[in-house]
Amino acid sequence: MKMVLRWFGQGFDPVPLEYIRQVPGISGVVPMLCDLPAGEPWPMDRVLAMKSQINAHDLEMEVVESVNVHEDIKLGLPSRDRYVENYIATLKVLGEAGVRVVCYNFMPVFDWIRTELARVLDDGSTTLAYKGVLVDGVDPQDFAKSFQANSGGFALPGWEPERLVSLSKLFAAYREVGEEELWRNLAYFLEAVIPEAEKAGIRMAIHPDDPPWSLFGLPRIITGERGLERLVSLVDSPSNALTLCSGSLGADADNDIPALVRRFGGMGRIAFAHVRNVKRRREKDGSIDFYDAAHFSTAGSLDMYEIMRAYKDIGFGGYLRPDHGRMIWGETGRPGYGFYDRSLGASYLLGIWEALEKSK
Ligand code: DNO
After folding, report:
1. What percent of the chain has pLDDT over 90?
2. DSSP strands (E only) in the chain
3. pLDDT digit string, tens, across residues 311-322
4. How many domains are contained in the chain?
5. What's 345's domain CATH number?
6. Ligand 1 contact via 272 beta carbon (within 6 Å)
7. How far is the CA of 66 from the centre of ligand 1 (A)?
8. Domain of residue 146, residue span
9. Kind plus residue range of the DSSP H or E element containing 80
10. Does the beta carbon of 74 lie inside 6 Å of ligand 1?
11. Catalytic positions, please?
12. Atom of ligand 1 nearest to the CA of 158
């Protein structure tokens, strides 16, 4: 297992590589080219420049997150072929640069969604949180505007300004696309891309929908065991793999994370693990409330020891990272990516891993 940390790239991430290098046990960072719109091919010179900068800090660049899928592919529009070609070109570039895993998602319009970027917890730390009542029945335009106004100047992944401009057009287009169409469009994409990923030595690792249910009437399909099962069967290849995100899937109490790790990890289909905790509760009106908790088991609803034990038992040899750090110790930065808290998370998970290894 290799422990990695997400890094948004020079100028886009307030955390310097010098600091990341000082976190014990981190082998590499997981970058992206934040300024490239979804669908644009990633130029070799920029990828290599990013790699040498990362390598110069004794860190590896073997995983990239996210190479975003253009909306025309998800919608199945005739223009999708051009974007599929671009995606394949990007995979070739990344493969040549030594990247082994590409994390992507197939969520319509948005990436992860929260209703608060800085909910204050009892200990004074702040974190991302979700209140179902603030999403259910709310106009997505209004929601997006209030979200942007609260993001502290950072464009959140999947919430890039150029996409928000065309929001109503996008929503209109998705009226024609239900879950089955979305599955068909995902199959079309993977059938074209996976053989090329194989040639490039890359494993495509889909990130589950976060939260794992439909929002604003948009279809969402990678939400639990059945969706993951269907995904891996779309193209039977180790390159058609998963990013198993414990926190995304764990927002739904029906998802048994250690069982999912054993099942899909046992099939060799987990290329990338996002291991984080989430604290969920059901409100009196039946709506869901959750927040991204500290990594410790006692801080949230997930048993992190059992999750790590499942990875250990299946002999997981892929990449693993902590996720969604709270803001602690006065840190300011990208919502969801507090560096101190992710570092605590990495150390905690590595501690569990060492204990599992030595008690075997
Ligand atoms: C959240 C991240 C996701 C992920 C994308 C992959 O913190 O795990 O934003 O990077 O869904 O495309």
Report:
1. 84
2. 2-6, 26-30, 63-65, 101-105, 116-120, 126-131, 203-207, 240-245, 270-274, 278-282, 288-292, 319-321
3. 999 999 999 999
4. 1
5. 3.20.20.150
6. no
7. 7
8. 2-359
9. helix 80-96
10. no
11. 207, 245, 274, 323-324, 337
12. 9
